[in-house]
Amino acid sequence: MTEQAAKRLTVLVTGSAGAIGKCAVWGLKQRGHTVRGFDRHPSPNVDEDHVGELTDADAVDRAVRGVDAVVHLAAIPTEAAFMPDLLESNVTGMYHVCDRAREHGVGRLILTSSIQVMVHAPNWGARPVTLDDGTAVSSFYAMTKLWAESMGEVYHRKFGMSVIVIRPGWLPHSAEAIARMSANDDSKNHYLSRADAVEIWRRAVEVEDVGYAVVPVQSRAHRFPHMDLEPMKQVLGYEPRYAWPDGWEVEGLPE
To answer: What is the rounded distance in angstroms from the CA atom of residue 102 to the CA atom of residue 165?
Structure first.
Protein backbone atom coordinates (compact mmCIF):
# COMPACT_ATOMS: atom_id res chain seq x y z
CA MET A 1 0.00 0.00 0.00
CA THR A 2 1.12 3.55 -0.66
CA GLU A 3 0.77 6.57 1.62
CA GLN A 4 -0.62 9.96 0.67
CA ALA A 5 2.20 11.68 2.52
CA ALA A 6 2.15 14.97 0.64
CA LYS A 7 -1.58 15.55 1.14
CA ARG A 8 -2.60 17.48 4.24
CA LEU A 9 -5.90 16.27 5.65
CA THR A 10 -8.45 17.39 8.20
CA VAL A 11 -8.98 14.46 10.56
CA LEU A 12 -11.51 13.97 13.34
CA VAL A 13 -10.25 11.88 16.27
CA THR A 14 -12.97 10.79 18.67
CA GLY A 15 -11.75 9.83 22.13
CA SER A 16 -8.99 12.38 21.53
CA ALA A 17 -8.35 12.86 25.26
CA GLY A 18 -7.81 9.12 25.82
CA ALA A 19 -4.59 7.11 25.90
CA ILE A 20 -4.63 5.99 22.27
CA GLY A 21 -6.40 9.15 21.16
CA LYS A 22 -3.50 11.30 22.33
CA CYS A 23 -1.13 9.08 20.32
CA ALA A 24 -3.27 9.38 17.19
CA VAL A 25 -3.54 13.16 17.55
CA TRP A 26 0.21 13.49 18.10
CA GLY A 27 1.15 11.38 15.09
CA LEU A 28 -1.22 13.22 12.77
CA LYS A 29 -0.07 16.64 13.98
CA GLN A 30 3.56 15.68 13.41
CA ARG A 31 2.69 15.03 9.76
CA GLY A 32 1.07 18.43 9.33
CA HIS A 33 -2.57 17.30 9.35
CA THR A 34 -5.29 19.43 10.91
CA VAL A 35 -6.81 17.52 13.83
CA ARG A 36 -10.27 18.03 15.26
CA GLY A 37 -10.89 16.40 18.65
CA PHE A 38 -14.11 14.99 20.08
CA ASP A 39 -14.30 13.73 23.65
CA ARG A 40 -16.21 14.09 26.91
CA HIS A 41 -13.23 16.07 28.18
CA PRO A 42 -11.05 18.80 26.61
CA SER A 43 -8.29 17.35 24.43
CA PRO A 44 -4.65 18.47 24.31
CA ASN A 45 -2.85 19.38 21.06
CA VAL A 46 -5.90 19.46 18.77
CA ASP A 47 -6.56 22.33 16.35
CA GLU A 48 -10.28 22.33 17.08
CA ASP A 49 -11.82 20.85 20.21
CA HIS A 50 -15.37 19.48 20.40
CA VAL A 51 -16.56 18.39 23.85
CA GLY A 52 -19.64 16.19 23.73
CA GLU A 53 -21.22 12.76 23.94
CA LEU A 54 -21.40 10.09 21.25
CA THR A 55 -25.08 9.70 22.02
CA ASP A 56 -25.70 13.31 20.93
CA ALA A 57 -26.22 12.86 17.18
CA ASP A 58 -26.16 16.61 16.54
CA ALA A 59 -22.84 17.02 18.36
CA VAL A 60 -21.37 14.13 16.37
CA ASP A 61 -22.69 15.68 13.15
CA ARG A 62 -20.97 18.99 13.89
CA ALA A 63 -17.70 17.20 14.63
CA VAL A 64 -17.76 15.07 11.47
CA ARG A 65 -18.84 17.78 9.05
CA GLY A 66 -16.04 18.87 6.75
CA VAL A 67 -13.34 16.32 7.64
CA ASP A 68 -11.43 14.04 5.27
CA ALA A 69 -11.03 11.13 7.68
CA VAL A 70 -12.43 9.93 10.99
CA VAL A 71 -10.43 8.02 13.61
CA HIS A 72 -13.08 6.63 15.95
CA LEU A 73 -11.60 5.68 19.33
CA ALA A 74 -14.24 6.96 21.77
CA ALA A 75 -15.99 4.15 23.66
CA ILE A 76 -16.50 2.56 27.04
CA PRO A 77 -13.06 0.86 27.08
CA THR A 78 -13.81 -2.13 29.29
CA GLU A 79 -16.58 -4.43 30.49
CA ALA A 80 -19.58 -2.53 31.86
CA ALA A 81 -23.34 -2.85 32.04
CA PHE A 82 -24.65 -3.52 28.56
CA MET A 83 -27.68 -1.30 29.10
CA PRO A 84 -27.28 1.59 29.10
CA ASP A 85 -23.48 2.01 29.14
CA LEU A 86 -22.10 -0.23 26.39
CA LEU A 87 -25.21 0.00 24.23
CA GLU A 88 -25.27 3.81 24.23
CA SER A 89 -21.56 4.50 23.74
CA ASN A 90 -20.20 1.50 21.86
CA VAL A 91 -23.20 0.67 19.68
CA THR A 92 -25.47 3.69 19.26
CA GLY A 93 -22.58 6.15 19.48
CA MET A 94 -20.56 4.27 16.89
CA TYR A 95 -23.57 4.20 14.57
CA HIS A 96 -23.82 7.99 14.86
CA VAL A 97 -20.16 8.35 13.89
CA CYS A 98 -20.34 5.90 10.98
CA ASP A 99 -23.55 7.28 9.56
CA ARG A 100 -22.50 10.91 9.80
CA ALA A 101 -19.24 9.97 8.08
CA ARG A 102 -21.30 8.42 5.30
CA GLU A 103 -23.61 11.44 5.03
CA HIS A 104 -20.70 13.87 4.80
CA GLY A 105 -18.67 11.85 2.30
CA VAL A 106 -15.71 11.14 4.58
CA GLY A 107 -12.94 9.47 2.62
CA ARG A 108 -11.57 7.15 5.31
CA LEU A 109 -13.19 5.71 8.43
CA ILE A 110 -10.95 4.05 11.02
CA LEU A 111 -12.78 2.05 13.68
CA THR A 112 -11.42 0.37 16.79
CA SER A 113 -11.88 -3.26 17.77
CA SER A 114 -9.98 -4.95 20.60
CA ILE A 115 -7.63 -7.81 21.30
CA GLN A 116 -10.47 -9.11 23.48
CA VAL A 117 -12.29 -10.46 20.41
CA MET A 118 -9.60 -13.13 20.06
CA VAL A 119 -8.11 -13.86 23.50
CA HIS A 120 -10.31 -16.95 23.91
CA ALA A 121 -9.26 -18.55 20.64
CA PRO A 122 -8.24 -22.20 21.28
CA ASN A 123 -4.65 -21.58 20.16
CA TRP A 124 -4.17 -18.36 22.15
CA GLY A 125 -0.69 -18.40 23.65
CA ALA A 126 0.43 -21.36 21.53
CA ARG A 127 1.00 -19.41 18.31
CA PRO A 128 0.00 -16.04 16.88
CA VAL A 129 -3.74 -15.93 16.25
CA THR A 130 -4.60 -15.09 12.64
CA LEU A 131 -7.68 -13.47 11.14
CA ASP A 132 -8.55 -16.87 9.64
CA ASP A 133 -8.79 -18.31 13.18
CA GLY A 134 -11.94 -16.26 13.66
CA THR A 135 -13.04 -14.67 16.92
CA ALA A 136 -13.96 -15.89 20.40
CA VAL A 137 -15.59 -13.51 22.86
CA SER A 138 -16.72 -13.88 26.46
CA SER A 139 -17.91 -10.40 27.43
CA PHE A 140 -20.44 -7.83 26.32
CA TYR A 141 -17.58 -5.37 25.78
CA ALA A 142 -15.87 -7.74 23.33
CA MET A 143 -19.21 -8.25 21.61
CA THR A 144 -19.47 -4.49 20.97
CA LYS A 145 -16.00 -4.61 19.39
CA LEU A 146 -17.19 -7.34 17.01
CA TRP A 147 -20.10 -5.02 16.25
CA ALA A 148 -17.52 -2.37 15.27
CA GLU A 149 -15.88 -4.78 12.84
CA SER A 150 -19.21 -5.75 11.31
CA MET A 151 -20.37 -2.14 11.16
CA GLY A 152 -17.24 -1.23 9.23
CA GLU A 153 -17.81 -4.04 6.76
CA VAL A 154 -21.42 -2.95 6.22
CA TYR A 155 -20.42 0.64 5.52
CA HIS A 156 -17.82 -0.56 3.05
CA ARG A 157 -20.02 -3.09 1.23
CA LYS A 158 -23.28 -1.12 1.32
CA PHE A 159 -21.96 2.42 0.86
CA GLY A 160 -18.53 1.93 -0.69
CA MET A 161 -16.63 3.60 2.15
CA SER A 162 -12.97 2.94 2.81
CA VAL A 163 -12.83 1.41 6.30
CA ILE A 164 -9.91 0.14 8.37
CA VAL A 165 -10.65 -1.60 11.67
CA ILE A 166 -7.73 -1.67 14.10
CA ARG A 167 -7.54 -4.50 16.66
CA PRO A 168 -5.09 -3.08 19.19
CA GLY A 169 -3.11 -4.96 21.77
CA TRP A 170 -2.76 -3.61 25.29
CA LEU A 171 -1.59 -0.02 25.58
CA PRO A 172 -1.44 0.52 29.37
CA HIS A 173 -3.15 3.80 30.18
CA SER A 174 -2.44 4.20 33.89
CA ALA A 175 0.21 3.52 36.52
CA GLU A 176 -1.91 0.60 37.73
CA ALA A 177 -2.03 -0.91 34.23
CA ILE A 178 1.72 -0.49 33.80
CA ALA A 179 2.26 -2.28 37.11
CA ARG A 180 0.00 -5.16 36.03
CA MET A 181 1.90 -5.56 32.77
CA SER A 182 5.23 -5.41 34.58
CA ALA A 183 4.14 -8.33 36.78
CA ASN A 184 2.78 -10.48 33.94
CA ASP A 185 5.21 -11.80 31.35
CA ASP A 186 2.41 -13.12 29.14
CA SER A 187 0.83 -9.70 28.73
CA LYS A 188 4.12 -8.36 27.38
CA ASN A 189 3.50 -10.47 24.29
CA HIS A 190 0.62 -8.17 23.29
CA TYR A 191 2.01 -4.85 24.56
CA LEU A 192 1.30 -1.83 22.36
CA SER A 193 3.75 1.01 22.90
CA ARG A 194 2.76 4.63 22.55
CA ALA A 195 5.52 5.17 19.98
CA ASP A 196 4.19 2.36 17.77
CA ALA A 197 0.61 3.60 18.24
CA VAL A 198 1.62 7.07 17.01
CA GLU A 199 2.84 5.54 13.75
CA ILE A 200 0.06 2.98 13.34
CA TRP A 201 -2.87 5.38 13.48
CA ARG A 202 -1.07 7.94 11.34
CA ARG A 203 -0.53 5.31 8.67
CA ALA A 204 -4.14 4.14 8.92
CA VAL A 205 -5.22 7.65 7.93
CA GLU A 206 -2.67 8.11 5.14
CA VAL A 207 -2.47 4.71 3.45
CA GLU A 208 -4.23 4.53 0.09
CA ASP A 209 -6.20 1.90 -1.81
CA VAL A 210 -7.93 0.15 1.09
CA GLY A 211 -11.55 -0.93 0.77
CA TYR A 212 -12.09 -2.80 4.03
CA ALA A 213 -9.48 -4.35 6.29
CA VAL A 214 -9.17 -5.64 9.85
CA VAL A 215 -5.66 -5.03 11.16
CA PRO A 216 -4.39 -6.48 14.47
CA VAL A 217 -1.64 -4.27 15.91
CA GLN A 218 0.83 -4.54 18.76
CA SER A 219 4.47 -3.91 19.53
CA ARG A 220 7.22 -6.50 19.35
CA ALA A 221 6.69 -9.38 21.75
CA HIS A 222 9.10 -10.82 24.31
CA ARG A 223 8.65 -14.35 22.97
CA PHE A 224 6.19 -14.24 20.08
CA PRO A 225 3.28 -11.93 19.27
CA HIS A 226 -0.15 -13.12 20.37
CA MET A 227 -1.57 -11.75 17.11
CA ASP A 228 -0.43 -12.39 13.55
CA LEU A 229 1.02 -9.06 12.41
CA GLU A 230 1.17 -9.77 8.69
CA PRO A 231 -1.97 -7.64 8.03
CA MET A 232 -0.25 -4.69 9.74
CA LYS A 233 2.70 -5.10 7.40
CA GLN A 234 0.57 -5.64 4.30
CA VAL A 235 -2.10 -2.97 4.89
CA LEU A 236 -0.18 -0.30 6.81
CA GLY A 237 3.34 -1.04 5.61
CA TYR A 238 4.55 -1.08 9.19
CA GLU A 239 6.42 -3.45 11.46
CA PRO A 240 6.60 -2.70 15.20
CA ARG A 241 9.81 -1.12 16.48
CA TYR A 242 9.53 -1.48 20.23
CA ALA A 243 9.13 -4.17 22.88
CA TRP A 244 8.13 -3.78 26.52
CA PRO A 245 8.97 -1.45 28.22
CA ASP A 246 10.46 0.56 25.35
CA GLY A 247 8.42 2.97 23.30
CA TRP A 248 6.38 4.29 26.20
CA GLU A 249 8.10 7.67 26.40
CA VAL A 250 7.51 9.84 23.34
CA GLU A 251 9.02 13.31 23.50
CA GLY A 252 6.29 15.94 23.55
CA LEU A 253 3.41 13.45 23.79
CA PRO A 254 1.31 14.22 26.90
CA GLU A 255 0.74 11.47 29.45
So the answer is: 16
